[in-house]
Amino acid sequence: MAASVDPIGIFDSGVGGLSVLKQLRQQMPAESVLYFADQGHVPYGPRGLEEVRMFSEQITRFLLGLGAKLIVVACNAASAASLYYLRQTFPDTAFVGMEPAVKPAAESTNTGVVGVLATPATFQGALYASVVERFANGVTILQDT
Questions:
Q1: How far apart are CA 23 and CA 108, in angstroms?
Q2: pTM score, two decimals?
Q3: Phi, psi dihedrals of residue 97, rounded to the nearest 5°
């Protein structure tokens, strides 16, 4: 399948999303990409949800203004804090976000206990709670920042 001329927009609070960019380039080499590393506000993790949502919305508007056809939120904290919000705010835009790796951990635990290390913003977001609810029934989750 040929890529459209419109780029895929990717953003992260820093450079961690470069691993996502690398995979995207391997899987979809014909796609053009806009990568936004928000070095002005790094890190997102200790920030409040509303602040992270504001940054995410501003970056999304910027990337859409440059013609992005979809947005990849390559930041765990931004995905947790704002993915649902972005989908509501930009209903005609497709979003891809990061999910905490609770599902594979819960499926492979031998002890019924899983440890999760994440930022405060990730733990506060609805996405994290949703993943735990959907995939970690009967599993004890030990979480720490």
A1: 24
A2: 0.82
A3: -130, 175
